[in-house]
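Quick check before the chapter quiz. The format below is the same one you will see on the exam, so make sure you can read both the input and the output lines.
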Amino acid sequence: MSRATTPRRSATRPGAWKVLAVGTAAAGALLLSGCGAGQIAQTAEQVAAVGGAGAVTGDVAVRNAEIVWPEGLAPTGAIYQQGGQAPVAMVVVNDGGAADRLVSASSEAASQVVVTGDQTLSPQTPLVAGTEGAAAALPGSKQITVMLTGLREDIVPGRTYPLTLVFQDAGRLTVDLPVQNPPMPRQDQMAPVEGGGEGGH
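Here is the expected output.
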């Protein structure tokens, strides 16, 4: 099945960068935490491990969009199974002078995209999706949840999965979601190398 190409705009208005620079940095700290049965569908694209994706349409910008890595899961194999569901993390900003609204969401990788929470996008009041309480890292933002349900294929690291958002005024926007990088243990959490120290007691 061939995948339709959706035009994407990449230019971001100057005002949006001010909010997004703060928003993605703060929200990112908390956010870090298809067709064919059993086969990799053509809706997925092979890419290197990267941070979240972004896109712009009209006055609306999406930043740091990615599929959330499951807590406690080792970085091997599929992280979400076909038929299951996968949460999405992202920050959505309205840089215009009037409120907009997220009216629908869809993905070729899932039978449905479920969005919960207040989807009104007021100017300079970002919507934050991700782990519970993620919006607390960005004062003045609102928490929503975005969930891919009825996955049409396994979700695996190193691929992207398209998510299309439709806004009442800004229109349609498609972003290719990478899989979030797994959290790395801190240096002080790593087991010491046996016999590697000097002057051990």
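If your answer matched, good. The chain has one domain: 14-181.
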